[in-house]
Write a structure and sequence with these properties.
Blueprint: E1 2-5, E2 9-13, E3 18-23, H1 29-32, E4 34-38, E5 44-50, E6 53-58, E7 62-69, E8 72-80, E9 86-92, E10 96-101, E11 105-110, E12 116-121, E13 129-135, E14 138-145, E15 147-152
Antiparallel strand pairs: 1-2, 2-3, 3-4, 5-6, 6-7, 7-8, 9-10, 10-11, 11-12, 13-14, 14-15
């Protein structure tokens, strides 16, 4: 997975658990201004970025929270979210994030301490992506796989 955030950085993940970051506003950025850190023991399947916070989810079922700096990524928290591979992770507002895994569970956690606040099984076979949206107090998660299913996450 590759993500660009506000035209300032490019982040790429590997199948052996590494996250690579590059600041694209500095000349010769690919050579002099690249940095890497190991986030997972195996492949990373999803990531999301909000301001200076990076979330990743991997084959190990863990979610890793990191803070972003111009020259490094610092891991600030880790929690097992799924009993099998984690597939996708998305921010939900400023205080929560949502994950979906190959165990067909949708998990909502607090960003502050990574504690789960909601969990349910999804009816979508083979989930492979997750989309979240927020409109006022309405929060929605859409799980995509062999079909799709929408979840209203009110009260979070």
């Amino acid at each position: 997975a590759v993500v660009s955030t506000q035209s300032t950085g490019i982040f790429a993940t590997t199948t052996f658990g590494m996250v690579h970051g590059t600041d694209i506003n500095i000349p010769d950025y690919f050579i002099q201004n690249s940095f890497s850190t190991r986030h997972h023991s195996s492949g990373i399947n999803g990531l999301d970025i909000s301001q200076s916070c990076l979330l990743t989810i991997g084959d190990d079922g863990d979610v890793v929270k990191s803070s972003l700096h111009p020259d490094r990524i610092t891991v600030t928290g880790r929690r097992t979210a799924h009993f099998s591979a984690g597939i996708s992770v998305r921010f939900l507002g400023a205080n929560h994030f949502v994950t979906v895994g190959s165990d067909q569970r949708l998990v909502v956690c607090r960003l502050l301490d990574l504690e789960p606040v909601f969990c349910c099984y999804v009816d979508v076979p083979d989930p492979h992506d997750l989309v979240c949206s927020e409109d006022g107090n309405q929060r929605t998660a859409l799980v995509c796989g062999k079909g799709f299913q929408e979840y209203q996450l009110a009260g979070l």
